[in-house]
Structures are given as C-alpha cells and as structure tokens.
C-alpha cells in the first residue's frame, strides 16, 4: 500500500443513498472507502457497493469491513477485520485475491497481524474522539512505537483533523482514516480535500 493514504469509513448512521451522494464529491480524494455497516445483510451490502460504484467509487478502492465473502463476491479490493472477525490467515487462505487489513490496539496485536499476513493495520484512537467516550487516546508516541515494530503500513484513526496530518505521518503512519469528520461534515467534498491536501503538504 502506498504511503499517505486517506481511508474513509462509513459511520453506520447514514442511508446508503446519502453515502452515494457524498461519494460523488469525495471519491477523487479517497484511497480506500470502507463499508462498515455492522447491521446490514450481505444483500444490503452488495446493493450499497453498487450504489458506491455508480457514484464514482471504483471497486478497487472499496473495502468491506468484516465480510470477506461480500468483498470477494462484489469484486472489492479488500476486507478489513476486527477482533471478532475471521483470522487474517484464514481470510488470506480462503480469499487470496483480497487485500486484508486488521484493526489493532497494541504493538503485540500489530506484530501478530503482520505475522498472519495482514497487508496493513489500523491503529487508534490517536486523539480524543466522541466515538470513544471515556477511553483515553493512545497518542502520537504510542503510534510511533507501534509503527516501528512492524514493516507493513500503519493507518492511524481517531480524532485526526487535517492539521494533525504532519504529526501522524512523522510518527510513522502511512495514512489516516476518517469517519464523521468527512461523511458528516457540512461539505464532505471540501472536508475530504482538506485531509488530502494536508497529507500531501505536510511531509
């Protein structure tokens, strides 16, 4: 995975039609769009992927969270795994065509994910965020230490604003992931452009 990637993750709170509308404005700035919809059926996810593609997001930049079967059936580029998902090694064996990412919360989890064949890990939350109330942020130094332990790319997530891009990249991250900061912004296209510009300006 190339450095300085911008990952956008669906919030699970928006109708798919709204996601598709946002996609028309943000797709040119986004490296990966994660369809993270825990309550949706496989058929609903397939329909959402069709909407995203019709709005300009190519399949090779779509990632389906948790559902490797849907990702493979839809021709998406990859799957992103959580703690409750199939193991990285199992997904790699069953769906070798998919790029596999894994959410991690410690250096040990990152090392294990890399050993199992993960193509990248996502680590956070780096800064305080309303999506993780009451949980302390891990901070830049923890990101730096984790990134130094693995050879695969690390995508930072959690409370990251465009002005934070330089510090996050300098700590060793390959990119950032954003949810509501883009998709629930008043102008998603302008918000995505701000993150994109920050990523490429700061380093």
UniProtKB/TrEMBL annotation:
Cofactor binding summary note:
Binds 1 Mg(2+) ion per subunit.
Which CDD domains does the UniProt record give? Answer: TMP_TenI (cd00564)
Q: Which InterPro entries does this entry report, sorted A to Z? A: Aldolase_TIM, ThiamineP_synth_sf, ThiamineP_synth_TenI, TMP_synthase
Q: In which pathway does it act?
A: Cofactor biosynthesis; thiamine diphosphate biosynthesis; thiamine phosphate from 4-amino-2-methyl-5-diphosphomethylpyrimidine and 4-methyl-5-(2-phosphoethyl)-thiazole: step 1/1
Q: Which organism is it from?
A: Gordoniibacillus kamchatkensis
- Please give the catalytic activity noted in the UniProt record: 4-methyl-5-(2-phosphooxyethyl)-thiazole + 4-amino-2-methyl-5-(diphosphooxymethyl)pyrimidine + H(+) = thiamine phosphate + diphosphate; 2-(2-carboxy-4-methylthiazol-5-yl)ethyl phosphate + 4-amino-2-methyl-5-(diphosphooxymethyl)pyrimidine + 2 H(+) = thiamine phosphate + CO2 + diphosphate; 2-[(2R,5Z)-2-carboxy-4-methylthiazol-5(2H)-ylidene]ethyl phosphate + 4-amino-2-methyl-5-(diphosphooxymethyl)pyrimidine + 2 H(+) = thiamine phosphate + CO2 + diphosphate
State whether keyword Transferase applies.
yes
Name of protein: Thiamine-phosphate synthase
Q: Please describe what this protein does.
A: Condenses 4-methyl-5-(beta-hydroxyethyl)thiazole monophosphate (THZ-P) and 2-methyl-4-amino-5-hydroxymethyl pyrimidine pyrophosphate (HMP-PP) to form thiamine monophosphate (TMP).
Q: Which cofactors? A: Mg(2+)
Instruction: List residues binding 2-[(2R,5Z)-2-carboxy-4-methylthiazol-5(2H)-ylidene]ethyl phosphate.
Output: 129-131, 159
Every copy of the Thiamine phosphate synthase/TenI domain together lies at 20-182
Q: What are the protein's UniProt keywords?
A: Magnesium, Metal-binding, Thiamine biosynthesis, Transferase
Enumerate the residues binding Mg(2+): 66
Record's Pfam families?
TMP-TENI
Q: Which residues bind 4-amino-2-methyl-5-(diphosphooxymethyl)pyrimidine?
A: 65, 103, 132
Per the UniProt entry, the Enzyme Commission number(s) are 2.5.1.3
């Amino acid at each position: 995975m190339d450095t300085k990637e911008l990952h956008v993750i669906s919030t699970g709170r928006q109708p798919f039609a709204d996601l598709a509308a946002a996609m028309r404005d943000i797709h040119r700035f986004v490296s990966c769009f994660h369809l993270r919809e825990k309550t949706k059926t496989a058929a609903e996810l397939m329909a959402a992927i069709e909407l995203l593609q019709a709005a300009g997001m190519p399949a090779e930049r779509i990632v389906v969270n948790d559902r490797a079967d849907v990702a493979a059936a839809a021709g998406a580029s990859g799957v992103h795994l959580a703690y409750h998902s199939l193991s990285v090694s199992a997904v790699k064996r069953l769906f070798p065509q998919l790029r596999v990412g894994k959410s991690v919360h410690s250096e040990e989890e990152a090392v294990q994910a890399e050993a199992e064949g993960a193509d990248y890990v996502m680590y956070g939350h780096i800064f305080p965020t309303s999506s993780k109330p009451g949980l302390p942020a891990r901070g830049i130094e923890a990101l730096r230490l984790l990134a130094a332990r693995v050879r695969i790319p690390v995508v930072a997530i959690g409370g990251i604003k465009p002005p934070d891009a330089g510090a996050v990249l300098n700590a060793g991250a390959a990119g950032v992931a954003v949810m509501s900061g883009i998709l629930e912004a008043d102008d998603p296209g302008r918000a995505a452009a701000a993150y994109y510009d920050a990523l490429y300006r700061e380093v």
